[in-house]
Amino acid sequence: MKLVCTQSDLSTNLSLTSRAVPSRPTHPVLANVLLQADAETNQVSLTAFDLSLGIRTSFSAEVLHSGEIAIPAKLLNDITTRLPEGEITLENESTSTDDPLAGEGSIVTLIPKSGRYQVRAMGAQEFPELPVIENTPALHIPAGALIEGLRGSLFATSADETKQVLTGVHLTVQQDTLEFAATDGHRLAVVQTTNESPDTNTETGLEVTVPARALRELERMLAHAHSEEEPVALYFDQGQVIFEWQNQRLTSRTLEGQYPAYRLLIPRQFERELVLDRRQFLSALERIAVFADQKNNVVKVSMDSEEQEITISCEAQDVGNGRESMSAQILGEDIDIAFNIKYLMEGLKALPSVEIHVQLNGNLTPVIFTPVGGFKMTYLAMPVQLRN
Amino acid sequence: MKLVCTQSDLSTNLSLTSRAVPSRPTHPVLANVLLQADAETNQVSLTAFDLSLGIRTSFSAEVLHSGEIAIPAKLLNDITTRLPEGEITLENESTSTDDPLAGEGSIVTLIPKSGRYQVRAMGAQEFPELPVIENTPALHIPAGALIEGLRGSLFATSADETKQVLTGVHLTVQQDTLEFAATDGHRLAVVQTTNESPDTNTETGLEVTVPARALRELERMLAHAHSEEEPVALYFDQGQVIFEWQNQRLTSRTLEGQYPAYRLLIPRQFERELVLDRRQFLSALERIAVFADQKNNVVKVSMDSEEQEITISCEAQDVGNGRESMSAQILGEDIDIAFNIKYLMEGLKALPSVEIHVQLNGNLTPVIFTPVGGFKMTYLAMPVQLRN
């Protein structure tokens, strides 16, 4: 194998794929990145796979001899990022991929403008195949819509690995939408993105739960997409999901288990409604959080419909207290309601609008936050018992 | 006590003083910042003191009633940094400082533009006095020279608390210079800053060792000084040192024990001399470090006087190897010499010039690095045994 590429192409693609390299590999070959060079197409692809999350990216290079080899990912990445801009020659002795021992125990040599680096590599044949999904039509979603869906749901997943299916985002394919849902049992975030070019042959009602870890990598990779209009192809299958665009592909196993019937949690009628400024509410909460941190994170929100304002307060015994008021459009009777301030703040951060709509019934039933504007997001937070 | 100040003045000064608040205070009052407000001068001062390092800063405010009180530093800082810009009123009930119980168990109220915060505070009389040094003439050093001295020495102090005196920087007052020295036993950094306006009555030959922690805070505070010309007054005493400028003061205890006679370690004659580009050397070392990390951090530097170049290399068994060559002006016979790559890189980062001068004798005797140019800095690194 022999190829010449630029430092920036190699470095950018290595840092993207390296995210799928496990920090404690169960098998030595998984600590590697699989490099495949094709002299016919002059394309180089890099693949990393931890047996759950897989990332493959490819880029153009001058490929003099085809070949494939598994190179220690961290070492190659550490050297490449430190090299100056310019061309790099990458080669190993064996140039034939027919030889079953090609690359086995061999040395890969990197020759940048100055210097020479050699890294002990492994045979490509030991590297596991990335999963493929065949005979399933793709769903196409613009990169921007996918990013919005991830941004509005990922934060609400559970970080507790024992909660299984709650550590993922639940995706539901509808006729002309893709719905994202995430809950950790205390709050729920649901985003509906519009699929503007619906595939007539896409199976609707299809549901999968994808690990948050894979979707965080997807979010990071999409941030580098050429444009928000870039279509991303989604392939769903039992146990596996694939996202593919341009020269990049991310595969992930799906989470097993029944996802909660979250749509039933969202009330349909409300006794009270508020409209208020999201940023003003959030920055007041950030200050009150200094006291709430000392007191189980509980914050009290009091509605005053006569003054058309809400008061946010926290009394932390032996430490101090804080209160702030802000104007709000209020419909319904006055009420005091308590929240875990972290859930309130995280939801407000993810809502994409200037003003938000808050809908509630009593002070122990679900409270719904939605953006004022076209974006379809629903955030549900459960109030907590008001002590004092 | 009652005062009105701006959010930015309070926040900036709190974040400077808070650095001297111990994370695990030995006495509850040390978790506080002492706030003193003087209605006559309209000045507010903030003091924090962990019994070793003390920081006091002051700023102008509208002081309506004089008073002093000890306020929980973290809480006050956390609230203040989150407040929007604008005026803040700070008050507590007691306005008399003659009352011995003033502020004891009292409440401080912060009233920003919107909202109201109350914090439980402690009496000022419990807060320990900052050390003072009387009847000792000050030494005056421009802020810029002090920053240069700290930047060129602090990195070479030992992080090992059992090494006592080596965890500090040794300061020596000379007729018209202040000398900074730091060593951890493996390398040594010495900087001489010129005192351009020597005080004729300053005692010369005075030596103290100041804890690195205090000097790091000094460096941080000086970065906010109005100009590099700003004179900083230094007061030295047995056991205590004080740095004072504008409205800021930093006090620190000094470290006890005999500092090593480091000047004797620097050879006066050399068999070999090199001049080379500092950045080029450093960036080659950063790449070779990827392999040296796998091999006791040892890097080999080989001189080739015929080619007028040096080669930097590392062979990490079972992993790989790297080598780079760069041009250098070389005087003396060829030699191979090995270093701990971290000590080499840290020294090169601290040297302030484009080109550096390297002087050595054999491959197991001290190697001296100096900047080419006016700046007076000496960096000494001990080579390590060359294995292979």
TrEMBL record, chains A, B:
Superkingdom of the source species: Bacteria
UniProt xrefs under Gene3D superfamilies: 3.70.10.10, DNA Polymerase III, subunit A, domain 2
Domain named DNA polymerase III beta sliding clamp N-terminal: residues: 1-130
Keywords (A to Z) from UniProt: Cytoplasm, DNA replication, DNA-binding, DNA-directed DNA polymerase, Nucleotidyltransferase, Transferase
Domain DNA polymerase III beta sliding clamp C-terminal: residue ranges: 265-384
Single GO MF descriptor: 3'-5' exonuclease activity
Signal peptide: none
Subunit structure: Forms a ring-shaped head-to-tail homodimer around DNA.
One GO-annotated biological process of the protein: DNA strand elongation involved in DNA replication
Pfam families: DNA_pol3_beta, DNA_pol3_beta_2, DNA_pol3_beta_3
Family assignment from sequence similarity: Belongs to the beta sliding clamp family.
Classification lineage: Bacteria, Bacillati, Cyanobacteriota, Cyanophyceae, Nostocales
Protein's name in the database: Beta sliding clamp
SUPFAM superfamilies: DNA clamp
GO cellular component, one term: cytoplasm
Keyword Mitochondrion attributed: no
Record's function text: Confers DNA tethering and processivity to DNA polymerases and other proteins. Acts as a clamp, forming a ring around DNA (a reaction catalyzed by the clamp-loading complex) which diffuses in an ATP-independent manner freely and bidirectionally along dsDNA. Initially characterized for its ability to contact the catalytic subunit of DNA polymerase III (Pol III), a complex, multichain enzyme responsible for most of the replicative synthesis in bacteria; Pol III exhibits 3'-5' exonuclease proofreading activity.
Subcellular location: Cytoplasm
